[in-house]
Amino acid sequence: RPLDINIELPDEQAAQKIKIGLYFATWWSLNVVFNIYNKKVLNAFPYPWLTSTLSLACGSLMMLISWATRIADAPKTDFEFWKTLFPVAVAHTIGHVAATVSMSKVAVSFTHIIKSGEPAFSVLVSKFLLGETFPLPVYLSLLPIIGGCALSAFTELNFNMTGFMGAMISNLAFVFRNIFSKKGMNGKSVSGMNYYACLSMLSLLILTPFAIAVEGPQMWAAGWQNALAQIGPNFVWWVVAQSIFYHLYNQVSYMSLDQISPLTFSIGNTMKRISVIVSSIIIFHTPVQPINALGAAIAILGTFLYSQGTRLSYVYKYALCKAVRGSG
Ligand code: 3PG
After folding, report:
1. pTM for the full model?
2. Which molecular function terms from Gene Ontology are attached (predicted)?
């Protein structure tokens, strides 16, 4: 994947910036809508394993219809592609279901505050499992990320251990998903949109038996009746909305990953969390103590410092390469 350094003409640069801006705005808006409907559904129907399965099923169906009707070209894949995709799908499934379990137990804002700590997991996994090293500013940025998340967790009014652990497991799983998908998407012949479609389908196959084992049709039937009685027919539309928006926001995020570096992507992801945290606090009237908000702000500031530290190391390596090449 190219470094995040532009060598385009000013007009091309401006057009590219507008395009990326539009991708980001669409990605964040779809994500905010998903998070709101997802929480509304989970409040009335606390079966996160089924709702996670439905969102993958809905995305898979949407893409199968798009391919069948030629709205989108179906990808040409082989056994090797699906083999490489398998570990990505396992990590995606775990990350998705863990985040949904978390959101069924705690406020959406709390799940996303903990999820803003994902860069810390990325650095720790890369260092201790892959032996990668980072410049000092990157390590220092972990202090506000971890400290801010910890402050938020300790001062959260409606703290719940399952909710906290779900967000932490989701962070870890998504770090592995990113590591595995780098391998799968490098030099790929499949577009970001189709890559995510295949990922949804494989994740659906992996998740379905576990969802049946953990929750199962009996619980779902009783819960569904209960939710319908409480909310009325609108409940069905909420489920449809959370499923469609889940697929759309992920699809747009994978489409934008086609256009930008992983670093720009991770900055976009942090900005996305700010919009989700703020909008969900407003919509669900989540009680927030000033100290709790301070923790979230410190953690998010930490993720910005992390991205700046990583950018610095790219620029340094780029300058070093140029100097070495220049000197012969
Ligand atoms: C999910 O359900 O997969 C999570 O909400 C994903 O969270 P993220 O895409 O914001 O990391």
Report:
1. 0.89
2. organophosphate ester transmembrane transporter activity; phosphoglycerate transmembrane transporter activity
ipTM for the whole complex: 0.94
242 C-beta closer than 6 A to ligand 1: no
CA angle 78/81/82 to nearest 5° reads 95
CB-based contacts of 162, cutoff 8 Å, min separation 6: 101, 102, 105
Return d(Cα 216, Cα 239) in angstroms, integer: 18
pLDDT digit of tens for each residue in the chain (328 aa)? Answer: 444 555 556 777 788 888 888 989 999 999 999 999 999 999 999 999 999 999 999 999 999 999 999 999 999 999 999 999 999 999 999 999 999 999 999 999 999 999 999 889 988 988 898 888 888 988 999 999 999 999 999 999 889 999 999 999 999 999 999 888 866 665 567 888 999 999 999 999 999 999 999 999 999 999 999 999 999 999 999 999 999 999 999 999 988 877 777 767 777 888 899 999 999 999 999 999 999 999 999 999 998 888 888 776 666 666 767 676 665 4
Q: Using a 6 Å cutoff on CB, does residue 100 contact ligand 1? A: yes
Q: Whose CA is nearest to atom 11 of ligand 1?
A: 115
> What distance in angstroms lies between residue 325's CA and the mean position of ligand 1's atoms?
42
Residue whose token pair is 């539009």: 22
Task: Show Cβ contacts of residue 163 under 8 Å, excluding neighbours closer than 6 positions.
Answer: 101, 102, 103, 104, 105, 106, 110, 111
Contacts of 106 (CB under 8 A, 6+ apart): 156, 158, 159, 160, 163, 164, 167
Q: 114 CB less than 6 Å from ligand 1? A: no
Task: Tell me the CA–centroid distance for residue 316 and ligand 1, in Å.
Answer: 32
